[in-house]
Amino acid sequence: MPPGIPCGVTLPTNRGTPVNIADLQPAVESPDIALRVDAIDWPTVDADLDRYGCARVPGLLPATGCAALASLYPHDALYRSRVVMARHGFGRGEYKYFAYPLPAVVAELRATLYPHLAPIANRWNQALGIDVRYPANHATFLDRCHAAGQTRPTPLILQYGPDDYNCLHQDLYGEHVFPLQVAILLSAPGHDFTGGEFVLTEQRPRMQSRAEVVPLTQGDAVIFAVHGRPVTGTRGVYRVNLRHGVSRILSGRRHTVGIIFHDAQ
């Protein structure tokens, strides 16, 4: 499977006018993505995920890369489907799932983030007594998904306008689920939009739910648990269930790119 759309390929826009894909490629080169991912403070990410179920990564993408990714949203030829949230009771706003082959930057983010997260995912599964282990290489994990019929790509861009929001949910698409995912804010709070905070809730056994709000600026990423994580209590390790969403946008327009590592049925 090609990691990304090659430059020089011509695609139709949503209005039917051909456009060269080279003109749509975000202004972040793949080597820059790899360097940025390697420069993340991974021990802090590891500790924050264990403590809170989420970790903020400041400045994963530059403003130019954010703007370039957001500019892909109108080009329907890049996507396999569009979801209007209100039609399904998911909230308000919309999102589009990229088709294969993914844009190069999205593919590179997926491929370079995964090897850092797989050891955390394996440690969590071991703590919870789950036998599943994740390979070190993302392509190998995708082979596992595809063999089980999960062949549709899950990276997506979400778009919100005034009064839009995303209900608390979990991104589960089949039997094979990688327990961590990433969201990157492409818009600038206070300039492009107001409101619209990333929200995470954690349901603990026999306890009230805990909420976590992660303040993000343009280019920041949040790494978070898809649906569950281990917590150590006085009686040993137990599982807490998590959901995530976005609070109501008060004004403007908000774009986010989501990097989910398992594919969908």
CATH architecture: Sandwich
- Helix- and strand-based class? alpha+beta
- Distance, first to last CA: 17 Å
How many domains make up the 3D coordinates? 1
Overall geometric form: globular
Question: Could you tell me the strand content as a percent range?
Answer: 25-35%
What's the β-strand tally? 17
Q: How can the largest sheet be summarized?
A: 7 strands, antiparallel
The CATH homologous superfamily is named q2cbj1_9rhob like domain
| Strand order in the largest sheet | 3-13-9-17-7-6-4
Order of helices and strands: EEHHEHEHEEHHEEEEEEEEEEE
The CATH class is Mainly Beta
Radius of gyration: 18 Å
- Quickly count the helices: 6
The whole-number mean of residue pLDDT values reads 91
Spans where pLDDT lies below 50 across 5 or more residues: 1-19
Helix content: 25-40%
The CATH topology annotation reads as: Jelly Rolls
InterPro entries: DUF2086
Pfam families: Oxygenase-NA
Protein name: Prolyl 4-hydroxylase
Organism: Burkholderia paludis
Question: What do these coordinates show?
Answer:
The strands form four sheets. The protein has a seven-stranded antiparallel sheet. The longest helix has 25 residues, at 104-128. It has six helices and 17 strands. Mean pLDDT is 91; it is low at 1-19. It has 265 residues and is α+β, with helices and mostly antiparallel strands.
SSE layout and pairing:
Elements: E1 10-12, E2 18-20, H1 30-38, H2 42-52, E3 54-57, H3 63-70, E4 79-84, H4 85-88, E5 91-92, E6 94-98, H5 104-128, H6 138-147, E7 156-160, E8 165-169, E9 180-185, E10 193-195, E11 198-203, E12 210-214, E13 221-225, E14 228-233, E15 236-246, E16 249-252, E17 254-259
Antiparallel strand pairs: 1-2, 3-13, 4-6, 5-8, 6-7, 7-17, 8-15, 9-13, 9-17, 10-16, 11-12, 11-15, 14-15
